[in-house]
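Lay summary. Proteins are chains of building blocks that fold into shapes, and those shapes determine what they do. In this project we predict the shape from the chain. Here is one chain we studied, written as its sequence of building blocks.
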Amino acid sequence: MENPKKLFLQEKPARILQAVAAHERPYISLIAKEVDSTYAHTTNTLSKMERYGLLVFSRGGRTKYIELTSAGRTIVDALEGLNSAFDGTRFTLQEKDVIELSGKIKSLYSKIDAIYKKEFAGKKSLTVEEATRISRRLGPYCREISKIENLVAKAPSLQKDFEALKKRMDELTELRKSLTNL
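And here is the predicted shape, written in a compact code that computers can read:
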């Protein structure tokens, strides 16, 4: 059996356990969606946590619910303490990381703009199928924006470009909604 410490020195398992703690009656697909993980990976990680005695599963009809044990609660509290320690510490990105992040922001903006040009140009309304397709195309970019948001906070020079990217994503999301509801 692997060392459980190794499990929590990785981002996804830590986020999975914290997501379990954040919900009243969590279930696997809810947790997978919240931490942006596959169902299979989430199930595998939760099963390891069960073997370590950090949580237990219970059935409610066809749904498998998750409940933290006292050991699991102790780990969540420790992770929250660690997060608090990091929140109070000011980190800065190295110049090469800022350059890479700047390129990612510009690339995301370009991809989102290409979706606008292809999907919205000249349209006065959208069918449900078109709106669904657009949502599926924008979804991964929306998740990418969420992932880099904390990094941008450590690089003030990128804040303006990042805000423009977020604004563009919001505009497209609102446009999709307004054209679908006509």
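What the prediction tells us: The helical segments are 4-7, 11-22, 28-34, 39-51, 70-87, 95-119, 128-153, 159-180.
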